[in-house]
From TrEMBL:
The keyword Transmembrane applies. This is EAL domain-containing protein. Keywords: Membrane, Transmembrane, Transmembrane helix. Residues 23-276 form the EAL domain. The chain holds residues 506 to 782 of 794 of the full protein. It comes from the Bacteria.
Length: 277
């Protein structure tokens, strides 16, 4: 299953049609990884640009494989999505994130935690009640969590996706459109779906300081989001100069390497204590 390509380690490459044997073994490795607790929850802070206050965090999964070591999500999430394993992983992420969110609340720190959903999750009729159970068990109000979805995840089966999203939103859970600007039919979905937050894709944000077109796209997206009554979050904030630009453009929040890379839960708590904008 493992291949070396450049310096990166690739577990799954959808462009290569692998034998069903290989897919089976990766699937069983993923299942075993859940049993053996090889997945880690990482968190990346989100700050309010006007004040520098940390207001939330995005939960991101990592896999520490016993032989292959540290594996990033881009190397197994696409495979997990094709097999349906993603539903188990999403459930694990929702549980772990709720536990971390509740732990922080007990320390008096209230942050909104975001978890990523995939296409399969949106087609899962049981997700809303399952998630409601997780929230209740951790004594969390639904609005303390946000679910991020991409436009392409919605496109797969828009009618069923909308139904799931309406049920989640009806419970009080917040919803965000992720990677905004990279998908298609963005505007029709923004208008129709019960969305609270719009996340501008990092590909537009990372170079906006040097690329005038990127800067214009970011500014227009911020205005569009605000005109629709949405909170606008920029991802990929890597420099102080971009912070100032985004703040000047009226962007609400941002996440990015300038503040911090994603960190394991315990380090995230330490980081919060020392953060000064
Ligand atoms: P995403 O949801 O768009 O997550 C943001 C990605 O951008 C993260 O990569 C994060 O580390 C990276 N990032 C944040 N700030 C910066 C920055 O300033 N510069 C640069 N260059 N990158 C930045 P990561 O953690 O490798 O995740 C990649 C993708 O994998 C995610 O993209 C998401 O689509 C998927 N993913 C990660 N965890 C999960 C999960 O639990 N469930 C699902 N369904 N997908 C996940
Ligand atoms: Ca995301
Ligand atoms: Ca994103
Ligand atoms: Ca992405």
């Amino acid at each position: 299953v493992a291949k070396r390509r450049g310096s990166g380690f690739t577990v799954y490459d959808p462009s290569i049609d692998k034998s069903s044997q290989e897919s089976l073994s990766l699937l069983s490795e993923l299942r075993r990884a859940l049993d053996r607790n090889e997945f880690l929850l990482y968190a990346q802070p989100k700050v309010e640009l006007a004040t520098g206050k940390v207001v939330g965090a995005e939960a991101l999964v990592r896999w520490v494989h016993p032989e292959k070591g540290f594996i990033g999500p881009d190397n197994f999430i696409p495979f997990a999505e094709t097999t349906g394993f993603i539903r188990m992983l999403t459930s694990w992420m929702l549980n772990r994130t709720a536990i971390l969110c509740a732990e922080l609340q007990k320390k008096g720190i209230t942050l909104k935690f975001s978890v990523n959903l995939s296409t399969r999750d949106l087609l899962d009729q049981d997700l809303p009640t399952h998630f409601a159970d997780i929230l209740t068990r951790n004594q969390l109000s639904p609005s303390s969590m946000c679910l991020e979805i991409t436009e392409s995840a919605i496109m797969d089966d828009p009618i069923r996706a909308q139904l799931t999203l309406e049920r989640l939103h009806g419970m009080g859970v917040e919803l965000a459109i992720d990677d905004f600007g990279t998908g298609y039919s963005s505007l029709a979905y923004l208008k129709r779906l019960p969305v609270d937050e719009l996340k501008i894709d990092k590909s537009f944000v990372m170079n906006m300081e040097h690329d005038a077109d990127d800067a214009k796209i970011v500014k227009s997206t911020i205005d569009l989001g605000h005109n629709l009554g949405l909170r606008v979050v920029a991802e990929g904030l890597e420099t102080l100069a971009v912070w100032h630009l985004l703040k000047q453009m009226g962007c609400d929040q941002a996440q990015g390497y300038y503040m911090s890379k994603p960190m394991p839960g315990d380090r995230f708590i330490e980081w919060l204590e020392q953060w000064k904008a």
